[in-house]
Design brief:
This protein has one domain: Rossmann fold, CATH 3.40.50.300. It contains 7 helices and 10 strands. A 6-stranded mixed β-sheet has the order 6-7-8-3-9-10.
């Protein structure tokens, strides 16, 4: 599904800084892994490289056999729309759209017919426990509920890869546990490989395996 080989990134400037060095990873369909590490070690940079939002200095990123480092901006944008889903700490739910419209957005961008997009958005909201709330506006929801909408939106177009960057950082412990349980359930049900970046041991414990990002790449947690 996802293969990283010797992925490296250095930010140039007055004080050149090596953020990632020789990162290797093999991720299978349906596998849910957590990535942990010290602040500033490069966890978010790793997600940005995988998503094609930044370019590595060297190394390979292959998703379903497609080499991302050889794609241009338009090809990367299309690949993100079709094959990736994103869940962030800040939710990024559009305040002027209903919940159904927010969730349907990836489908509309992928040119799915409006009727089909609406039906799939409704089904996905039901899957995350928000059935009957399709017409609600984001301001009416709690933080935990907004994160459920974000997960629904990330999965509605059936991506191959889900990238989650500190998705429970703004949630209370009970809401965080519910969101993580839901995230794992949906990843497994839909066979969408997932990388969860987190500082939380409790969040990482929900993953199939925990990887530690350090100065010399990724290693399995002891």
């Amino acid at each position: 599904m996802l293969l990283l080989n010797k992925l490296s990134k250095t930010y140039a400037g007055a004080r050149s800084r090596s953020v990632l060095r020789d990162v290797d990873l093999v991720l299978a369909a349906g596998e849910y892994v957590a990535v942990m590490g010290e602040s500033g070690i490069g966890k978010s940079t790793l997600l940005n490289l995988i998503a094609g939002l930044d370019a590595p200095d060297r190394g390979s990123i292959r998703l379903d056999g497609v080499e991302l480092t050889g794609l241009d901006d338009d090809e990367l944008t299309l690949l993100r729309r079709e094959r990736m889903g994103f869940v962030f700490q800040a939710f990024h739910i559009l305040p002027y759209l209903s919940l159904a419209q927010n969730v349907a957005l990836p489908l509309i961008l992928n040119r799915v017919a409006e009727h089909d997009a609406a039906a799939r958005a409704h089904a996905m909201l039901a899957a995350v426990g928000l059935e009957g709330r399709e017409a609600s506006m984001p301001r009416e929801l709690s933080g935990g509920e907004l994160q459920r909408v974000a997960i629904a939106r990330a999965l509605v177009h059936r991506p191959k890869l889900l990238l989650a960057d500190e998705p429970t950082g703004n949630l209370d412990p009970e809401s965080a546990a519910q969101v993580l349980s839901l995230l794992r359930e949906q990843v497994k049900t839909r066979q969408a490989a997932c990388i969860l970046v987190t500082h939380s041991q409790a969040a990482a414990a929900t993953a199939d395996r925990i990887l530690i990002l350090g100065a010399h790449g990724l290693r399995e947690s002891a």
